[in-house]
Amino acid sequence: MGASESSLSSSQKMTDEITTVTERSEALDPILEKLKSLKITRPILTSTPKEEGSLNDILVRKASSSSALATVNPNVLLELISIYRDWQDGKVQQISMKQEEIENKIEVADALAIKLLQRLNYSVSAMKTSSQHLSEGGDWGAEREVD
Fold this sequence. Notes:
- There is one protein chain.
- This protein is mostly helical.
- The protein is 64% helix and 0% strand.
- It contains five helices and no strands.
- It is rod-shaped, with a radius of gyration of 36 Å.
- The chain starts with a helix and ends with a helix.
- The relative contact order is 0.09.
C-alpha cells in the first residue's frame, strides 16, 4: 500500500513556472520633451479688436461688426489641427500600450489561478486517497490498543 502511494505522488509531481517579462521605457518624459521643443509662432489672429484682451474673450465673444477685422490665418489653423492630431495619436498609442499591459497582467493572473486550482484539486484528491486508505485500515487503532 505504501509503495502505491509513493509512486502515485511521484507521478503527479508538477513543475510550475510562470515567467513575466516587462519592459520599462528609459526615455525622457514625452510631455517634457514637447514643452522644451515649443517655439514662439506668429499670432492666430491677424488683427485683434482692442476690447478683446484675453484668449477667453476671443473664444467666447459673439459675432459682431468688429469681428470682421479679426481673421484667422488658415495656415496657422491647419498647423493647430495637425498638432492636435499628433497629440491625439500619441494618446491613442499610450492607451494601447496600457491596454496591452493590462491584458498581460490578466493573462498572468489567469495562469496563476489555473495553477492554484490544479494544486487544490491535487491536494483534494490526495486527501481523498488518504482518507480511503485510513478508512480501509480502521481496525489498526483497535489492534494497537490491544497490544
